[in-house]
Amino acid sequence: MATSLTEPENRRRELIITIQNLFKTGESIREISRITGKERKTVKKYLEGDPDLLCRSRKHSSLDIHTNFIINSIKEGQTATSIAKQLKDGGCQCTLSDLRHFITDIANENCLDISKYCRTSPKYDSEGNATPKTDYITRKGIFNHLWMKIELTPSHRECLWNQHGSLPELDLCIREFREIFDKKSIPRLYLFIERHNKSGLKEISSFSNGLLKDIGAVENAVASPLSNAFVEGQNSRVKTVKKSMYGRCGKLLLEAKLMYDTKRKN
Description:
The protein is mainly alpha-helical. It has 15 helices and 2 strands. The protein has helices at 7-24, 29-36, 40-45, 51-54, 67-75, 80-89, 96-109, 139-147, 154-163, 166-183, 186-196, 202-213, 215-223, 229-244, 251-258; strands at 118-124, 130-137. It has a two-stranded antiparallel sheet. The longest helix has 18 residues, at 7-24. It is flat and about 75 Å long. It starts with 6 loop residues before the first helix and ends in an 8-residue tail after the last helix. The relative contact order is 0.05.
């Protein structure tokens, strides 16, 4: 067993040795793929070469000089995207996707958590002097706060609500709509439609008017504890099975896959 390898790298090394030995005995790529359970493109990649080198997880040796900068940036709260852009602006020839993967690997190796919704990055004036740092919040971070109830720092929320006048109205709309279903209240539903059908945000007004067009179904959804989730789930299951069989099987096999077996014992 090779030294200075992680456990996943050792497993990959054993797999590479197995693939190369099978290939030397005359097995086809298709047969090796069946024996090892790996895709053919993976088998092709490991047919030749030194297993000790092929098993290495990272081959970004040219980026290793940036490891300390990446670690410090992660500790400052920057996201992988912001760090990758700084490296790219600094002259790195790799793509942003490769840089983000490298940054993620560095974070995992050093047990660091990468910030998900905000980042801190330095700005520079025309003379190259660093200006005060600026905080950024991604659209995904705002979405997670509004829909998933993931907390923002008070300063971030205050800044966003002051600079973007649509956010307070959107936040209120989401909370009121959830209260309709929490309280099972039909009057709240009509108050919601009346309040928001002429909203300055066309997305909210369109949503409100859409509720009014299908008001019968919406009322049932609010008032009834019943749900059609089971039916929709079964529809999705049938469609998935049908798509997987497209062009290869007939109606009899489709029926066999979908029909409930009444003779089956529980």
